[in-house]
Amino acid sequence: MQGGTLAAPHVTTAAAARDYARSVVRQQWDTASRTAREEDVVDLLLVVSELVTNAIRHGDGLAGFEVAVTAEGIRLAVHDNSDDIPEVAYGSGALPVGHHGHGYGWPLIIRLAREIVIDRRGGGGKTISVLVPLRALP
């Protein structure tokens, strides 16, 4: 189902979103002749965790989670209920100075994902879309 967007049923937590994203990789991206590298899947799961957790904690709740399979990898769309655009979303990806226990999410997303787009939703809230590249095992 290359290129089709799949809305994740009943995803309300970061753990459920990770499980769903991993299942899409294994069932839709992987083929008989192509298997995603595990380190790329781990990167995908980190991005999923950060985006979904941010939606829950800072975006007035998770309003939706979608996964689309592309030839390059996995495109994620995370919908939340907040109109606020995170200031760091278009930053350099530099990690915060000193260890404060927070502030690492967006730098990780910027480093691991491509084509980061933030769109306001018509009924309120926003959608953050990213492409997480996947490479096939040699």
From TrEMBL:
<keyword id="KW-0723">Serine/threonine-protein kinase</keyword>
<protein>
    <submittedName>
        <fullName>ATP-binding protein</fullName>
    </submittedName>
</protein>
<dbReference type="InterPro" id="IPR003594">
    <property type="entry name" value="HATPase_dom"/>
</dbReference>
<dbReference type="Pfam" id="PF13581">
    <property type="entry name" value="HATPase_c_2"/>
</dbReference>
<keyword id="KW-0808">Transferase</keyword>
<keyword id="KW-0547">Nucleotide-binding</keyword>
<dbReference type="InterPro" id="IPR036890">
    <property type="entry name" value="HATPase_C_sf"/>
</dbReference>
<dbReference type="GO" id="GO:0005524">
    <property type="term" value="F:ATP binding"/>
</dbReference>
<keyword id="KW-0067">ATP-binding</keyword>
<keyword id="KW-0418">Kinase</keyword>
<feature type="domain" description="Histidine kinase/HSP90-like ATPase">
    <location>
        <begin position="15"/>
        <end position="129"/>
    </location>
</feature>
<dbReference type="InterPro" id="IPR050267">
    <property type="entry name" value="Anti-sigma-factor_SerPK"/>
</dbReference>
